[in-house]
Amino acid sequence: MEQEKRYSDMSEIELKQEIARLREKARKAEQLGIVNEFAVYDRKVTMAQAYLMNPDDFKPGKIYELTTDPGQYFKVEYMNGVFAWGYRLNGNGKEEGIPISLLNKGV
């Protein structure tokens, strides 16, 4: 069995192809009503998208709107690769790491 390539090792073209492939699998799972499988593919798409973004665009101390939850905001405490670590405003106060593809740069 061929070893799957890590997102961090993929080129931009490979990442875009992988995102298209995963979206198609997610669409089929959704049509078949397989919610768990859909959620897995959806999360993989989010992760692959994060590797198409520049982590330097996200700054500690700044607040970003969550793309999946308009009106909800996330304060970045620090960056670790393509993950932003921090807290949701009006959240439970627990630190969490989220892929930068969930943060809206345009706020």
Mean of residue pLDDT values:
94
Spatial order of the strands in the main sheet?
A: 4-3-2-1-5
Radius of gyration: 15 Å
Q: What would the principal axes of the Cα set say about the shape? A: globular
Number of helices: 2
**Are there runs of 5+ residues with pLDDT below 50, and where?**
none
Which range does the strand content fall in? 15-25%
Q: Structural class of the helices, strands and pairings?
A: alpha+beta
Number of beta-strand segments: 5
Note the main sheet. 5 strands, antiparallel
**Helical proportion, percent range:** 25-40%
Report how far apart the termini are.
44 Å
Q: Give the SSE order as H and E letters.
A: HHEEEEE
Write out key terms for the chains shown:
single chain; about 110 residues; 2 helices; about 35% helix
